[in-house]
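User: Here's a chain of 240 residues. Predict its fold as tokens.
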Amino acid sequence: MSDFTTHPPEPSVVADMTTFPGEAGDVRAYLARPNQPGPHPGVLICHENRGLLPHFCDVARRLAAAGYVAMAVDVLSREGGTDAAEPAIIPEVLNALPREQIVADFHAGVRFLQAQPDVRADRIGMMGFCFGGGITWRCATQIPELRAAVPFYGPNPPLEDVPDIQCAVLALYGENDTRINAGIDAITAEMVAHGKVFSKLIYPGADHAFFNDTGQRYHPGAATDAWARLLAWFEYYLMM
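Assistant: Prediction complete.
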């Protein structure tokens, strides 16, 4: 994996690749933790549909600098990992993976974080982008240990599973992301109808993938505000 990063290295952070036991073998992940005594809340990160690229390791380091033990999971681990895959076919491979398999690996990631001595086992959150935003929604419906979730421009989970959500969800969207935004009204109605802790924000002028500062659709204003809101959400639901 390239060492390229879009933000300066944080001296207050210790980070490296790791593995944790999954349902069908070891799962690869990038683990970043504050270089100071814990315990700290833990946060799982799910990447976009092109695999565990350096941008998502960068996000993990940024979270660690903010006081979280953050782990960006390589969803392609069962297929040999992002580094072993042909980049052009990664979206197709990810789209073909059974969603229950992916959720199972993230549930294993929750248990791994909970077992870390510097992690508060009752303060685990999750975030994800694009494909990973959809996985974050699904994990929110199936992993009761999650206390907070922040899906960025993620497709909805099965609406019949919304009653099972137990965590506080902050959903972030770009105004120009018409495909994903077509589902906003439906998920909002279900979350409200079932009394879930839920907030959403649609950023004017922003498109799908507006947070990714290595991509062409990066929107600095939306990304900066979204990061601040994410940190505030996690601080309220995970730090306290």
